[in-house]
Structures are given as structure tokens and as C-alpha cells.
Amino acid sequence: MRPTARVLDPQGPFLQTWNKIFVISCLVSVSVDSLFFYAPAIDGDNNCLYLDDKLDKTASILRSLTDIFYLLRMVFQFRTGFTASSSRVFGHGVLVDDTFEIAKRYLATYFLIDFLAVLPLPQVFVLVVRPHLKGSEVMTEKNILTLIVICQYVPRLIRIIPLYIQITRSAGTVMDTAWPGAAFNLLVYILASHVLGALWYILAIQREDTCWREACNDQDGCDLASLYCGSTVFGNNTFLQDACPTDGDADIDPIFGIYLPVLQNVSQSTGFLEKLFYCFWWGLQNLCSYGQNLKTSTYIWENLFAVFVSTSGLVLFALLIGNVQTYLQSASGHIEEMRVKRRDTQQWMAHRLIPEDIKERILRHDQYKWQETQGVDEEDLIINLPKDLRRDVKRHLCLSLLMRVPMFENLDDQLLDAMCDRLKPILYTEGSCVIREGAPVNEMLFIMRGTLESMTTDGGRMGFFNSNVLKSGDFCGEELLTWALDPTSGSNLPSSTRTVKTLSEVEGFSLRADHLRFVATQYRRLHSKQLRHTFRFYSQQWRTWGACFIQAAWHRYCRKKMEDSLYEKERRFQAAIVSDGSSSRSLGAALYAAHFACNMVRVLRRNAARKARLLERVPSRLLQKPAEPNFFAEEE
């Protein structure tokens, strides 16, 4: 059942493309949310904390832009049909296009998760609530904002998983090709490193804030409000440098542990990019090393964070390596398969002591076939397609080439489709023997590219040799067509009357004996006078027979003309003798002239016989006329 104009097909190309965009936007939005963690900073001169207003507003704007994709996704969910579970017993199932049922299903499943993920709580706190807060209330807002962002990570990450599963079920992969797929998985790993670095930064600031609060509570006259820049309460906070020192050089800092590098290097920096890339490098380094270099203190939350880093690194690195390897193997799978096949071939040839010339031909054939097909078995791919789709693919691949064969250029579409469906692509390297004279013919070869030499000795007859060149548009194995069109022919295949060898790399299509017979018996258009004349004109057998027939007729004409010429000369000479005998010459002179005339006639006859023997070096008898295919006319 096709979806209506108002309902989107979940398997359609439009929604498949948008789902991929949604997945990428979800990953980007998670990384944008991490920018809020870089807003808190430390004023080293006054020993107080402050928030970077400019960074918070920039993060809020970027967060609003990514939320547009979430809202668009929710709109699409109200218009995306689904397959009824009761109709999945067989086939694709029935698509439900009732908008009420679609909305009811969405509200009962992922609507709440999408709603929580798209709530603009961080923007509200930054742009609406925060301008009205003063002093220590700003840091309270900081804690609330951090908690909101972390809590919204859960629905945003949860929403990515079913969306990713839906894409892989429909399209197989997120990316259609290998290298973009590997880049996508690497992007996920990089974004995870960015998020982990941002968490490391905000937890370091939070750890120092906790240390300052504890020290202030222990210090007489210290007001907690003085720990935050912009507060109306002023105090001397120099004691914090001694209570919470960040300049220690111990191997394991007992107070800050793994957070010490942040506090020493970038916590007091006003440059956002410095903090971003420093924390990103820390996250990437510890994800790759599974957190093995982390040296924690005894602080509980710090150790839990270290466990989270180690576990996340193990899981994400395993997924990255596995997915990237899968994508790269799909890209280089055929290359590796070709390499293994070539190695096995070389080992087999060495084990069987194959001669070097045959080895070279085998390797050249494999290399040529790889260059033409890139390791893809076209027949295996096409044979699994539905009949109509297979016919269209075969027609696209073979029809234009088949029409270059003059014998088939005037056939109707039905017959051409039947032949295209049964044609098999074939490759020959230079120097290959396609068929030998006297061997059974099991297929017709239609040449598309390359040249071949076709030769015959008329069954090994002494002094006879005929050779010509086949090129694009020619065919060989025409004996098979005679056999296929003869209803009285048995199962024994005809013998070849010619030897065919390749002069260069040859590409073509072959039509096997059983397929040719099927086409000949099913389609009566093959039995036509026009096809008979075309077949005779392009058949090498008929061409050779016709050339020999003309040659023999010419030799007979030349022999008859020579005999007539000798007879005329002899008649004239005898007439001359008679006229000389009637003259007044002596009888002896007449006898001498008659003897001389006889000798001359004998010499002329001997020369004529020698010329006749020279002419007989060509076939003294015609080649056997090729068997005539049963081209009986079906035309009215």
C-alpha cells in the first residue's frame, strides 16, 4: 500500500536522507551542549570564580540552531507512517497512513523523550534568568545549568540509538560508501573526546569550588559570597592559595588528583580555544589509553569519573576499530580477495609444474579480468534480481553492443530481450585459442572489442589454407546456429570448421548451445529470409565457400580460354602448312616444314600442361558447401 501525499514512507529515500541528517545533528547538538561547561573560569589575581557571558550566549544560540532539527524531526514523526505488526507475516507489510494512529503511536513511544531533549532550559537560564541574578546566585545558576545539560544528555543520547537502528535496518549502513562510513565513526569518536574533555574541565572547576568552600568555612571571617567575582562582599582570599594549592609537583595530588593539569594550565585562561583543544586532547588521549595514565586522589567522585573514562574508552575504541575495519574491509575486500586468489594460483602452478608461457597467460587473464570487472561477479549479482529487473539490466548492458552485430540489428524487441537475458560476458587475452577446427562448438561468440584470426585447412587437406580477421561486430561458431535451427538435429553438438585465435584482448558475449536452441524454437522471427541473407553475408564459412567457388570458376574459365587459344593456333598453323604444300616448293622442303610444325605443337602442348598444373595448386575441387540453416520463410 502506497502512502498518501500527507504521510511519509519510512522506507522512502526522502526520509532515509533526513534520518542521516538527524543523526549527525544529534551528535553535533551533544557536542554543542558541552560548550556550556567551559563558561566557568577562575580569576587568579582575586582568587574568585566567574562565568564567561559571551561564551554562554554563543552556546545558547548554537543550541537553538541544533534544536531546530529536533523540532523538524518531531514534525516528521507525526507524518511518518509505520508498518502494522499484524501485517508482517509475509512481505513488506501494510503501511498505516492514518494520521490519528500515527500520532497516537508517536505520543505513546518517543514523544516524551524528544520533548525532554528539545526543552530550551539552558537558553532560558542563560538569556532570561541569569541577567536578574547577582553575586553568589550566579554560581548557583551555574550548578543548575550544569545539571540540566548533563540530564538532557540522557534523552538526546537515547534518541540517537533507535534512529541509528532504523537507518541501519532500512539502508544497511549510515553511509553508502566505505570512506565516508569510516569518517563518520571517527567523527563520533572525536565528538566523544570533546564531550569527555568538557566534563573533565567542569568537574575540575567544581572540585576547586568545593575545596574553596571547605577552606572558607574553616577560616574565621570568610564569607562564601567573596569567592565569586562580582559579589558586593569583599574579602582577603589569599589564604585559598595555601588551603587549595595548585602548584604542587607531587606524582599524585592528594586534593585535586586528575584535575590538577586543568587548574594549572587553562582554568585561568581567557582564551576559549586554548581550553577547548587542551581538554579535547586530554579526552582523546585517555579514551585511546582507556584511562591507564590517570592518577586519582581518594576523592570518590573523582574515582567514579576515572572509571567512567576507562569504560567509555574501552567501549568507544572497540566500536571505532570494529566499524572502521568493517568499512575499510568492504572497500578493500575485493582487492584482498584478488591477492589471495593470485597467491593460490601461483602456488598451484608451481606445485603442478605449469610451463612458464602458460603461467604468463593465466596471470595475464586474471589481471585483465580484474581490470574489467574490479573483482565483481556480474552474473552472480544479476541472477538474483527479479526477472523484469534482470531483463532491464541485461538490456542496458548488452543491447547497444548486440545491435552492433549486423545479424541482429533488425530483430524485434522481444527476441532481442530474450537474447540479452541469455548472453554471458566473456573475456579473452591475447594469444588465446577460442576454438579449434574439428572440436565441438558449444557456444556462439559475438565480438564487441578486439580482433581474432579465423583460419581453416578444410579438415587438414594438403595445400589448402584460408585465414581472415574477425573484429567488432563479427561472430564465430555459426555452426551452432545451423544445429539449433534444425529440428531434426540430435544432442550431439556440431564440429567447428575453423580455428579461432585472439590477436589482442577480446571482449564479447557468448550464447550457449541450449540457450540458442531455446531462442530458436520459441521465437519464429529468427526464421526469416532477411536473416538468412545476413547470416550468409557475415558467416566466415559462407565467405570462404563463396571465395573458393569464385576462384574455381575463374580457374575453369582460364583453362578453357587457354585450350581454345591453343586449338586456334594449331588450326592456323595447319592451314599455313597446307597453303605452303600447294606452292612450287620441293617435296623435301614440305616434309621438313611438317616435321617442324609437329615439334612446335608438342612444345605448346607441354607448356599448356605445365600451366594447367600450376593452376591446379589451388583447390581442384570446391569446399563442401556449408550446411544451410533451416531459414524457412514464415512471412506471409
TrEMBL record:
Residues 407-491 form the Cyclic nucleotide-binding domain. SMART domains: cNMP. Pfam families: Ion_trans. One of its GO terms (cellular component) is endomembrane system. One of its GO terms (biological process) is monoatomic ion transmembrane transport. Its main location: membrane. InterPro entries: cNMP-bd_dom, cNMP-bd_dom_sf, Ion_trans_dom, RmlC-like_jellyroll. It is a multi-pass membrane protein. It is found in: Endomembrane system. It comes from the Eukaryota. Keywords: Ion channel, Ion transport, Ligand-gated ion channel, Membrane, Transmembrane, Transmembrane helix, Transport. The keyword S-adenosyl-L-methionine does not apply. Belongs to the cyclic nucleotide-gated cation channel (TC 1.A.1.5) family. This is Cyclic nucleotide-binding domain-containing protein.
